[in-house]
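FAQ: What does the model actually see?

It sees only this:
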Amino acid sequence: MLIIDSDKCTACGVCESSCAFGAISVRGDCAVASDSCTLCGACVENCPEHALRIATVEKQLQADLSEYAGVMVFVEYRHGKIAPVSYELLGIGRKLADQRGVGLSAVLPGGSVGTLVQSLIVAGADVVLLAEHPMLEQFREDLYASILEMVIRERRPEVVLAGATSIGRSVIPYVATAIGAGLTADCTRLEIRKEDGMLLQTRPAFGGNIMATIECPQTRPQMATVRPKVMAPAEPDASRSGEVIRIQIPPELLQSNIDVIETVVNTEDHVNIQEFETLVAGGRGLDSAKGFALIRELAAELGGAVAASRAAVDAGWIPYPHQVGQTGKTVSPKLYIACGISGAVQHAVGMQSAEIVVAINRDKDAPIFDLATYGVVGDLYEVVPRLIQRLQESRG
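And it is asked to produce this:
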């Protein structure tokens, strides 16, 4: 993490101007770093007062890594159902487990979730570790993390996977720190290296400008959070059978520092672009918020939803729930139409799993055309209305 010494900082602004990611700003008499800091070290090198440093944590090396075996998935239960990302994790987890010749287990915490265990077995789990207790009905990260830590210490899996969701991102770092394991966040690809069985974890790095492959050679388990919609769930197999183990939770692990007063589902924007098979996305090339009226019209004709690039969201043209990309949502529709989107790496990370990509852009050299199944070089304000017209004519 980046440490800023407030006693040494003179608020000169050198760190702010040297940060390529806009992650540091001077507020009052001291610099402040945001969550977008990539720990590249440029600010540390350029600070004339030596007020910044990057702190590292030395991990204790484990004596015998061969004691760890198996793949484990942390399953999310919320609003009465299992989160779709959990089935996606079971899909990739099944592949990894088969490659390593080991079992796949699923940890399911919740208040009353026993009826859901069979769906996890059908989705690929060999063993379901069921943690049921009224205190687990509401999500409390300290309880969930403590239970997962206990299970990992007892069963010693080689790999632990969780969704890169608000729940996964709060629980898994807690557990990784407690057991001294390596953790890679926001992975978009996982594979096993044949030579030594190492888990290769690929994720965007340096603001999404490169894809980094990370490994944890000296600690176990190898832990990773995976973005929703980048992995395909396994085809359900109703003939599968598996074992259900009820976890005996010690009373001390049910003592929480969190008091949940009320849980409220956000009803301001019902759109969930990850659930649609067709998405029509608008970007900076729309030039204004008015352009989304055209995007919405095309989406309606196709029975799809409206998506957007970060540039369009940052400009205030459309709300954040529509954003696709590294800092937005990852989608995998059957059809993705990109209108006025350049196709920078940050956006590509979020939509590259689409089956068919149609790109409409005035710039024939735009990177989006490298991802496109079909490309149209032209003004979207000419192309999209004609496309809508043809759709209406064919329907008539």
